[in-house]
Amino acid sequence: MKNEQTRPDLNISGVGRAAGGMYRHVRVDGVGKFSGDIDCVSYEVNGTSGLQGNLHCERYVVNGSANIQGSVAADEYQVNGSSKIEGSVKTRQTRIDGITSIKEHLQTDKLIVNGKATIDGKLIGSCVEVAGGITVGKDVECETIEVQGGFKIKGMLNAGTVDIVLHHRCEVEEIGGEQIQVRRKSKVRLLDQFVPAMTPRLKTHIIEGDDIYLEHTHAGTVRGGRITIGPGCEIGAVEYSVSYEQDPESRVGRQVQM
Asked: What is the pLDDT of residues 6-45, one digit of tens each?
């Protein structure tokens, strides 16, 4: 970042307000409110902050609570507390250990969600890892996605590799990919016998890929080259071109070799 050393630091320890501008390090340990766009090296919130404008920085770290009225562009985006973004977020590395909500789109090379993330727009990334929970209002486009938590995707999930280990309910409109694998790690839990609605499973309308293995999946149509339907599935129709296997515990409406 140019002229980094000539920029002033902005630290708020109590309650304070400041205008937007160009800073080196912005740190809020109390309650800080900013009016106008901010361009800085780091934006760190340990207390509570509100920014009426856009933020451009190398590091965005929230350990407390932050509200950004505009969009965020950062190399590193890390939320351990609570973060609310009214616009879009574009980052290189994104890690959510707390709670974040983004009203528009998230574009990132790598996304790790151990907490809870809500994205009203699209999620576009290279590598997505979800161990917590994520809700996406539109499509998800990535190269790989690994899930060991839960998700709700209101659009299409399109990835080269999809690896889902069911721990919670997962729901998506459609899935498209080359390698698609859905497994359930644990056997039937005691809670599942009394509360079937809590049983981990994947619900979707269409799954389409080259190699598909499914467990505990409810889908209308599964279409692909090599398809294996494992236990716990309810599938309306399977359309395959190379091979097809089915667990006897699963129900499939019809199978067609294309």
From this structure: 899 999 999 999 999 999 999 999 999 999 999 999 999 9
Please check whether residue 148 is in contact with residue 166, taking contact to mean a CB–CB distance below 8 angstroms.
Answer: no
CA atoms within 13 A on the CB side of 31: 1
Rounded CA gap, 215 and 209, in Å? 15
Any idea what the Cα angle at residue 166 is, between residues 164 and 224, rounded to 5°?
A: 45
Cβ–Cβ under 8 Å, residues 167 and 149: yes
Structure tokens at 64: 């407390």
- pTM (predicted TM-score): 0.92
Cα dist from 77 to 7, 56, 98, whole Å: 22, 11, 12
Answer yes or no: are the C-beta atoms of 162 and 183 closer than 8 Å: no
